[in-house]
Amino acid sequence: TITDVLLPNLGYQPPRLATSTMACLGAIALSNILRFGHSVLTPGTFAEQILATLPDGVALLHPDGRIRSANPGLASISGHPAQELVAMGVERLLPSELAPVGGDAVERVLIRAGGERIPVSIAASELRDRQGYALGRVLVVRDLRDVAQLRSRLIMSARLAAVGELAAGIAH
Prior knowledge:
The chain is 47% helix and 22% strand.
């Protein structure tokens, strides 16, 4: 702009570089798009990539309890497709009371698509805008089926150990 507009109006005649400069910038942008898939990694796409890799379910809720967005982890845990989760009421998945905001994770039961009830751990956090107004909640849902199986195995092992000790005591 300076070499093609401003300086010629002031009476100087430098070489016109705006066209070649714009061509170079376009070539750089195109090479970035081809190399990285997009020219700029925006915070939104970065957050989406992180949420897509998490095994735990993450849901953003509207203030009225409808799911605004959900990651693939929640879709896997709930048995519902991610598109079906959007606009679904969270009470359909979690009929009991939600976790307290900002508190420790609490154990609840999640109802899967087929009606199966699975144990989950839920942590919640308030979602606010820059002015401090409530926009909804963020829920993190962790599948506890493996933990429940380990607990039942531990209880069974403890019972078998007690029976073994009792048998050893009687034999002695």
